[in-house]
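So, who can interpret the following?
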Amino acid sequence: MTWLVTGGAGYIGSHVVDALRGAGIGPVVIDSLSSGHREFVPAGVPFVLGSILDEELVERTLTQHAVAGVIHLAGFKYAGVSVQEPLLTYEQNVTGTAALLGAMERAGVDKLVFSSSAATYGTPGGDIVTEATPTNPESPYGESKLIGEWLIRDQGRARGLQHTSLRYFNVVGSGSPELYDTSPHNLFPIVLRALTSGQTPRIYGTDYNTPDGTCVRDYVHVADLATSHVAAAQSLAAGRALEPIYNLGSGDGLSVRQIMTAMAKVTGIDFEPEIGPRRAGDPDRIVADGALAARDLDWVMRHSVEDMVASAYAAQRHAAGV
């Protein structure tokens, strides 16, 4: 059995590729390398350089490799930047998803696992997000992911596409030192780059209604995330019915202060974070409930905060040749 991974040369996608191989499923990768890395794709895994906007290329790839299903991760993933680049965001995430669905229909591929986002919720009223929490995206990125879910849902109704969409917040850590987060916007690489360059990381606000006064967010290890993407693919391949939406969440979250403490402990770099003012719009606590995914998709938080930091730090050092 072969599955196509769109965006399979990226940080999350490369971990999904590894998890597929570990489960005995043959992956094929298509990636434009706009943010992915060719070296993240293992030797022996078929790699197609190109965009999901190229419907002919995608259809040809699906057919030539006898693909049974698709795990769709390709897209523009920077929520903050999407506010300045809405057209690019919609082209990559909405038009790209529509093009992929068209290519799948023509190739007769009827199974899809979609990497969505908890950005579809916006800033929810409660502090625990469930699949029943109303969606209210606050950025073009979040909106584009929600529209992608609608496209997939409607294709399921019209053409019998078997599908599920996975929503999650902050993905961290590394399942292998060779695979690392290269985002300029994510907390872990920002803090680690600051520490290893002699700078002091900053906490924005310490007077939130949380146990230590700093914001609490959901952080999930990338390898755990990849395992559940593969579990979803296996369930669809076996004909098991899945929920249309799953949250991959920790259920309790971690505070920014807890992250900083773990960073100092694991790296051995003693520091006291700078304290800055609150950022507008930052809620006290946002954490997703992962109970449904635990029931259906082998979703387990297998890594402690120290594990998350240690794996991210090892990967950063490997990338720097240390």
The chain has a mean pLDDT of 95. Residues 2-171+219-247 form a domain with the Rossmann fold fold (CATH 3.40.50.720). The chain has two domains: 2-171+219-247, 172-218+250-286+301-319. The first helix runs from residue 11 to 22.
